[in-house]
Amino acid sequence: MKSLTDLTFDNRFARLGDAFSTQVLPEPIAEPRVVVVSPAAMALLDLDPSEAESEVFAQLFAGHTLWSDAEPRAMVYSGHQFGGYNPRLGDGRGLLLGEVVNQAGEYWDLHLKGAGQTPYSRMGDGRAVLRSSIREFLASEHLHALGIPSSRALCVTASSTPVWREKQESAAMVLRLAQSHVRFGHFEYFYYTQQHDLLKQLGEHVLSCHFPSCKEQPQPYLAMFREVVERNAELIAYWQAYGFCHGVMNSDNMSILGITFDYGPYAFLDDFDSKHICNHSDDTGRYSFSNQVPIAQWNLAALGQALTPLVEVDALRATLSLFLPLYQSHYLDLMRRRLGWLSSDAGDDALIQRLLQLMQDSAVDYSNFFRELGDSAPEQSLARLREDFTDLQGFDAWASDYRARSRQDGDDQQQRRTRMHAANPKYILRNYLAQQVIEAAEQGDYAPVRELHAVLSRPFDEQPGFERYAQRPPEWGKHLAISCSS
């Protein structure tokens, strides 16, 4: 294991030059104190967990000091926001501190969010607040624990620095990790500014660093686009299967790696609602839960448009057309696992859609339903779950078909229970849980957020003594208004 001072930097993105990013030093926040740390994220950098107790830890991740080999840069990009093109965005409150190479030869971006003003702050103060930093930390690490591709979060650092949103709050920083912070919007920026030489330079960088196998293909950029399409099809399938709503699927919030990225007003579904809108600023429902699939395809089309100077249009269109069938295949596979099925059947999709409609009509808790379905044999679990449905005739018909479908796989109940519990989390990051630990942290009590993080890091385990985190939310907890403001 390494100490903080032993990290090895190799800042490949910084070497692209000033056309791609601007050198900016972080603005420190006052009286830094560590709120919560992810040992699993620290391990990605080969860091000893005890390093989080050192004085320099808070100093580094509050902007007070830097590694000598760090090269903090604010990245420039553009993107489509709520369907409209914004020609110049960029890191308005975050800095790419540098790229760390771990002992396995993996590169990890260190990105400090809330680091102060940059040339891309667009009249903002460049800060993040404690509540948004905690939310991003919890979501990043929880989605990873669920097996959903995501950026990671190493720590949250609080401060006494005041910032104003709807009210006065305190500034905080979150240190997030990803193997790249390149977004669809990076390519859009160089395409729409007609800087096609720089577009190609960016493409070469992404190919070399993140898709080296594509360089061996006859059309490397087309091969790269196909891999991005494939990764996003799988990612969105995970979101839909596990009830995750991103909330702000602007093209500048879409990672070239196909990972969940840039957490804002996200939510996991409590009661199943395909039309759920988790961002109260989304007046039209553009980024509702059910719209995430077509919006992902729309964003991929925007990326494809930006690649047209490098790839023939018809080839890009043909590749984009793979998205929906790939998504559907991944989604069905995930839902079969959640329902305990080992095999595939032509009628599975219809049976799944019937269940979701019944859940929608009866406001059934999405996560708890699947967990409880695997607790005991189908006859027993379905008899208990029946109480949650209002359309009893419809549920009984579905339950009969589900039992018949499940008998096709013919394994014993213990095997079924083990398999289903490995696919269905007992613990999910509900908005009301996040709100409770945020309110405690704002009063200086960090024990609740640390405990919640520990529980959510093992979402599939029973964890005796922590069952309260698996309960259905109270009514007030289902209607929290979350906005983009951070």
Automatic annotation (TrEMBL):
Reaction catalysis annotation: L-tyrosyl-[protein] + UTP = O-(5'-uridylyl)-L-tyrosyl-[protein] + diphosphate; L-seryl-[protein] + ATP = 3-O-(5'-adenylyl)-L-seryl-[protein] + diphosphate; L-seryl-[protein] + UTP = O-(5'-uridylyl)-L-seryl-[protein] + diphosphate; L-threonyl-[protein] + ATP = 3-O-(5'-adenylyl)-L-threonyl-[protein] + diphosphate
EC numbers, comma separated: 2.7.7.-, 2.7.7.108
Keywords, ordered alphabetically: ATP-binding, Magnesium, Manganese, Metal-binding, Nucleotide-binding, Nucleotidyltransferase, Transferase
Class of this enzyme: transferase
Catalytic residues (positions): D252
Name of one Pfam family that matches: SelO
Protein function: Nucleotidyltransferase involved in the post-translational modification of proteins. It can catalyze the addition of adenosine monophosphate (AMP) or uridine monophosphate (UMP) to a protein, resulting in modifications known as AMPylation and UMPylation.
Name the record gives this protein: Protein nucleotidyltransferase YdiU
